[in-house]
Amino acid sequence: MSVLRLIGRATLLHVKQLSRSQFEIATALFVPLVQATLAVYLFRAGTEPHRLLEAAVGAGMMAVWSSVLFGSGGAIQNQRWQGTLEMLMLAPRPPALLVFPITLATAVTGTYAMIATLLWGGLVYRIPLDVADPLAFAVSVPAAILGLGMFGLLLASTFVLLPNANAINNTLEYPIWLVSGMLVPITVLPGWTGPVGAVLPTTWASRAVRESVTGSGPVWPSLGVCLALSLGCLVAGALVMSYVERRARANATLALA
To answer: Which residues, by range, are in coiled-coil regions (predicted)?
Structure first.
């Protein structure tokens, strides 16, 4: 219970901290609406205008992924700039347990993106918000956000070893949501993208949310695979984070590495 209390309070703290950043607020407010608008017009111009609700949901998942990617990529660097990284590492808790709430907070702020894209599509473009399974949708969205937060810990622990993490963020954003089928069906992509997408939690998260909206398949197996892969990312991220901490302590380069 103490671990859950720590994660809950730390996540709330970092959400409040993100809400004080003008850049984060502006990005969270407007990027999902732009992505939803582009998705709606793309689907309207295509041969399947009846799938506008899927476009709105896909745009919401894209915004959640962007929030997790950039938030996780800068998780360690931001703490270093604020002068709090040393205090985090000195805390009597595993470093992964202290960084995970940061990545989870970025995923939680992405919840607005999902709500905003659906409301924007319904109010502005008159998209019928007819969710096939409201209960599954209400469960799959928070579970997908939790899974992406776990995935974010692996990204944060890996990016801390790379000097140009921001450039890598820009490189990964679009390819990941593309091979994950957030907006474009995986079936229309080249065959080699299938195995790549199958090992990503983002693929199964977007599939679970989409299936709950359209009723095109069973939600719970996709959600189970998403959480299983995310737990694997959480364990891998914790191991990498511990290695990075030990190496930084040994070399006395915590504030520089």
So the answer is: none
Reported as a single tens digit per residue, the pLDDT across 75-115 is 777 777 777 777 777 778 888 888 888 888 888 877 887 88
The per-residue pLDDT for range 180-215, each reduced to its tens digit, is 888 887 878 888 888 888 999 999 998 998 888 888
Quickly list DSSP for 77-136: HHHHHHT-HHHHHHSSS-HHHHHHHHHHHHHHHTHHHHHHHHHHHHHHS------S-HHH
Which ranges of 160-182 would DSSP assign to H, the alpha helix?
A: 165-179
CA nearest to 77, candidates 180, 185, 157: 157
Chain-centroid distance, C-alpha 247: 28
Name the DSSP letter for residue 24.
H
Residue 146 clears pLDDT 80, i.e. is over it: yes
Tokens 């990027």, located at residue = 31
Sign of CA dihedral 234, 74, 164, 255: negative
Q: Can you tell me whether residue 5 is helix, strand or coil? A: helix
Nearest to 69 by CA among 35, 20, 110: 110
Contact 179, 196 (CB under 8 A): yes
